[in-house]
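Figure 3 (text version): structure tokens given as input.
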């Protein structure tokens, strides 16, 4: 059983965050510059306040409210954030993302954000697991054929 903790130990630990008072253009530039799809909004004590994703920015830009992108990040961020813990199992996290139509999950441990999980991270982990299982099966077949001879 693969747990999120296993992914986090091999993943870049950089956590991208932005202040809720930052303007939306700055946030969009930060997402673009770092080639990421989401970042967390933390308060002065580093507690999670929200998450800002490309989708949040797209909704603001595409809205009928021409002032939607003139406000701060906090005006368009997602406040009801679905989070996870390093001990969650990977298939459980995948299901959470699929069920909630999201691509990023902040990882919390002891009420602190310790990372960000993306659907890409899960995809990579699952591919590695399946490749390893496939190799194990091939080796078993070879061993069985050798013993049968």
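Below: residues designed for each position.
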């Amino acid at each position: 059983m693969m747990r999120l903790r296993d992914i986090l130990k091999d993943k870049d630990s950089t956590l991208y965050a932005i202040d809720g008072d930052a303007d939306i253009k700055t946030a969009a530039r930060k997402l673009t510059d770092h080639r990421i799809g989401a970042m967390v909004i933390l308060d002065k004590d580093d507690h999670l306040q929200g998450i800002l994703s490309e989708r949040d920015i797209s909704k603001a830009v595409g809205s009928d409210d021409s002032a939607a992108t003139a406000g701060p990040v906090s005006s368009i961020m997602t406040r009801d954030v679905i989070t996870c813990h390093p001990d969650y199992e990977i298939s459980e996290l995948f299901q959470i993302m699929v069920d909630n139509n999201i691509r990023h999950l902040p990882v919390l441990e002891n009420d602190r954000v310790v990372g960000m999980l993306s659907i890409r991270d899960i995809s990579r982990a699952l591919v590695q697991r399946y490749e390893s299982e496939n190799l194990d099966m091939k080796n078993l077949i070879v061993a069985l054929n050798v013993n049968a001879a």
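The chain has five helices and five strands.
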